[in-house]
Inverse folding.
């Protein structure tokens, strides 16, 4: 039983509709709670960035499901590592809406103020999410 953190980025496809974000959060929260998976999801423009932490085989299983989801594509793994402790222990699938504050934080960890998560390192992506957690109450 190894505690693992996984961070990936992706881009929405034409299958992503008006209710998709809500649907993803709903099913994700139910499934992640059952599997003891914690973490957060951020969405801006057409990009997702998600951090998942939990037992390694359950993280792998969930990531495989997510990879097969046709609502997004160009899925790139930014980080996959063994961790000593969870950072998002109270968030089964935290979601942070985009705002002026998230834009400021994005600039802190990115080459430009644009949200271009494919240009972030795993370490920057992780630090960005920790800042999100510090500054926001998830819903
Ligand atoms: P089923 O509902 O039987 O899904 C069967 C297949 O259909 C799967 O490939 C599924 O991806 C796809 N699918 C399901 N609903 C739709 C739909 N409305 N439109 C198009 N295709 C659909 N799930 C989690 O459990 N935890 C997460 O943290 C999580 N994060 C996600 C993040 C992103 C960015 C995306 C796009 C999806 C995420 N999901 C997450 C959802 C995940 O991809 C699966 O849809 C979900 O886990 C249910 O899969 P299933 O095979 O058990 O169920």
């Amino acid at each position: 039983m190894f505690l693992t953190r996984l961070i990936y980025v992706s881009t929405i496809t034409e299958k992503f509709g008006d209710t998709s974000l809500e649907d993803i959060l709903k099913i994700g929260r139910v499934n992640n709670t059952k599997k003891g998976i914690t973490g957060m999801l951020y969405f801006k423009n057409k990009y997702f960035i998600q951090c998942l932490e939990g037992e390694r085989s359950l993280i792998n299983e969930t990531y495989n499901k997510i990879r097969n989801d046709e609502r997004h594509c160009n899925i790139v793994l930014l980080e996959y590592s063994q961790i000593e402790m969870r950072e998002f222990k109270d968030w089964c699938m935290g979601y942070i809406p985009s705002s002026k504050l998230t834009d400021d934080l994005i600039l802190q960890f990115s080459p430009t103020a644009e949200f271009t998560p494919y240009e972030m390192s795993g370490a920057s992506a992780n630090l960005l999410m920790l800042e999100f957690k510090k500054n926001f109450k998830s819903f």
